[in-house]
Structure formats: C-alpha cells, structure tokens
Amino acid sequence: MVLFCLVASHRSVDLNTVARLSTGALGVAEDAVAGGALTGAITLSTCNRLEFYGEVPGEDVRDVHRAQQAVLDRIAQQSGLDERFVLETMDAYEGEGVPRHLFTVVSGLESAVVGEREITGQVRRALNQARQSGTASSHLVQLFEAAARTAREVGTRTTLGERGRSIVSVALDLADDITPGRWPERHALVFGTGAYAGATMAALRDRGCADIEVYSGSGRAQQFTDQRGGSPVAEAGLPAALRRADVVIGCSGGSAPMPAAAFPVGPRTVVDLALARDFDPAVADLPDVELITLESVRVAAPEETLESVSAAREIVDQAARRFETERSARGMDEAIVALRKHTMAVLDAELEKVRTHHGCTGAEEQIEMAMRRMVRSLLHTPTVRARQLAAEGRADEYITGLQALYGLEVGSPQTATDAQEPPAERSPSDTPRPRAAG
C-alpha cells in the first residue's frame, strides 16, 4: 500500500486556477475507487487549495505513477485545462511526504493566514464526506485522524493562531478600515449557506453586527438562518437587500459570478471569499465601491512570530515521524498475521492428509502437538526479526521478502489481533509524472 497526494494551492498557482482544478476534481475520488484504480481517496477543497489523497494497492512505484496520471488526466479533462499544464501545476507527494504535508496543512502552516483554524474543520469535513461516499480507506482514515491530533497538539503547545486570525477575520478587518460607521450600525448581506458563511455570520456577530441578511441561490437561506440567525432573502428580494447593504460578503462560489451591473448605485464594501468568485471583478470599477478578494486577504494577512512557526513545525515533524513508525508497525503486524495464517494453513492441510491416510492411531494428538510446537519454534525467529526491522524502519524489506517468497498479499483487510507468535498447542479439532514537491 502506498499513499500519495496531489496539491495545487495559493502558494504555487492563482486562485482562479485552483477553482477550476477543484471543479475538475468533482467525482474523481468516487470513480477511481469504484473502478479499482485506488483503494481509497479523499479530496480536500478549500478557498485556496485543492488536495487529492489516494491509496494505491501494492508497493510498485509504477502503479503509483499510473494512478497519479489517471487522476490528473481526469481533473484536466473535467476542468478544461491542458493536461501538460495540470501535470506541471500540481505538486506530488508520496510515502513519508504525505503525512508531513497534511500535518503541515492542517496545522495552518500552509494557509494564506498562517495559523488559521478554519482549515482544521475543512480537513475534518473532507474525511467525513469521503466516509459518506465510501472512498475513505482505513489507512487514509488513520492519516486524517492523526492530522487532527497534530493540529490539536499545535494548538495547545504553541501560540500559533492564538489571536484567532482567519481568512474571514482578516477580510472583515480590511472591510472595517474602509467602510463608514461601526459594525453595530452596519447592514451586512451574506451570500451562501456553507461553512464559510457560518464562520462569517459568527465573526460578524462577534463584532457587534446584528443586522445580517442571507441569500442563497440554492434556496437554503431559510433553513440556514433558522439555525444560525439572520434574515433570509428570497430571489425577488435580492435587489432591495443589495441596496440596504453596507457590506456584501460572498461565501457561496455560485455557478456564475454576479455581474457588476446587478449592484445598485451607492457606496458599499464587497468582500468576495468564494474560490469560484461570487462577484465579477468589474465590481471594483463601480463608483464608491471597494472590493476585497482572497488575494487581498493573502497580501494583508499578518505574519506569525518565527518562534511560534518554528515550534509548530517541530511538532509536525515529530508527528510525521511517529505516524510513519506506527504505520510500519501496523504493516508489520499484518505481515506477521499473513505469515502465521499461511504457515498454519499448510500445517492443517498436512495434518488432514495424515488423518485421511492413517486414520486414528491413538498417537494423533501427540503428533499434532509436536508439529505445532515445531511450527511455533520455526515462526519465533521471523516474528522477532519482524519487530526488530519495524523498529529500524525497515518493515518494507520484510514485507517485500514475504511477498516474494510466499506470494502473500500483505495488507488485505483483517484484524491484527493475531499479530503475535502462534498460540500454544491445542487439541485437534512509463508515463510523465506530476511535479514532485520538494
């Protein structure tokens, strides 16, 4: 089993490209798992990144590269982008680089606002969605759960993000600087009913803004406001809501951006936090209108202290090493189980032959107990050696040897409760590759 991830983020490409790639990734995880190309897949899509995590059966690096290429081809096809461009745009991580990257991301170290906590919830939702769609393999679940633990550890052991900065908070800070009046007197109109809209509603209330209306092209504004407060806006009432609004905040990423001509005359601040823009950039050219975008937030985001970032990165490095050690141990447990089951199956088959040909001799129980003691002795050294190699980080060598010698499929779904020495005797009964991230 090999894990890989393909990544496009604000650090390497513009946000419009990230949005198109995210659109192209829709349904790819489900199709890849259903078709057998991958044993698991999780897609993480946020306002400034697309990350595709996949699990390839076996250890053959050629299979990993073929799987990556198939995913990239599908994303390119569905996004309408050139295949070569997508290949060169998305960074690729494999093996040990995968947990290190995900742990860095979930800790907020790769965010536009370093240390922001919204990414933790986004990673959790990505895992939940994969579980619901049936694409979350056990190894990927372990990876994402370890990522959540790492984020909590960074949050409790460092000051990273303790000021509560986020993309939403920085955007509202910018809006506060350029919008007349104070938040308690301002009228806000929020587009969208997703997680970002919820975070925006909470941030607005924290600042004292009580007059908040919510519009959703999907028609879910009523349900959203019933749960989170605010007033729903129907399609027919949208022009009037726009006229009332001092601050308009887009969090939906609708199918098409609202044209500048749809905005009424008058001063207002427009905040577009949607990855696929909610508003046409030409809004910035309207008289007395100020436009704040994700790019504006990224540029304005304050930097965390070097000490906090350094401490967080050390925690991430330790967590990544710990995950790899534990993963090797789990893989070794599966290898020991497979070897034990194979050996005991051979023994049981031979004992059955003895019973068939010689019948009950009276000494049958003593013979079987002796043979099982012999097998136990034979398996003792390979079991001890397995533990030693796992501790040295050389589990792959052992597993590869078992597969080569016995043709065993290590890593098939089964429990590891038998991953100890056998029990005591019992009575009878060549394609181009995506850009490798450095």
UniProtKB/TrEMBL annotation:
Catalytic residues of the enzyme: 47
Enzyme class: oxidoreductase
Database matches in Gene3D superfamilies: Glutamyl-tRNA reductase, N-terminal domain, NAD(P)-binding Rossmann-like Domain
E.C. no: 1.2.1.70
Annotated positions binding NADP(+): 192-197
GO annotation, biological process: protoporphyrinogen IX biosynthetic process from glutamate
Domain Tetrapyrrole biosynthesis glutamyl-tRNA reductase dimerisation stretches: 311-408
Pathway involvement of the protein, from the record: Porphyrin-containing compound metabolism; protoporphyrin-IX biosynthesis; 5-aminolevulinate from L-glutamyl-tRNA(Glu): step 1/2
Positions of the UniProt region annotated as Disordered: 410-438
Site (Important for activity): 101
Annotated keywords: NADP, Oxidoreductase, Porphyrin biosynthesis
Annotated Quinate/shikimate 5-dehydrogenase/glutamyl-tRNA reductase domain residues: 174-297
Cited SUPFAM superfamilies: Glutamyl tRNA-reductase catalytic, N-terminal domain (SSF69742), Glutamyl tRNA-reductase dimerization domain (SSF69075), NAD(P)-binding Rossmann-fold domains (SSF51735)
Catalyzed chemical reaction(s): (S)-4-amino-5-oxopentanoate + tRNA(Glu) + NADP(+) = L-glutamyl-tRNA(Glu) + NADPH + H(+)
Keyword Flavoprotein in record: no
Domain of life: Bacteria
UniProt keyword DNA damage present: no
Subunit details: Homodimer.
Recorded family membership: Belongs to the glutamyl-tRNA reductase family.
Functional description taken from the UniProt entry: Catalyzes the NADPH-dependent reduction of glutamyl-tRNA(Glu) to glutamate 1-semialdehyde (GSA).
Name listed for the protein in its UniProt record: Glutamyl-tRNA reductase
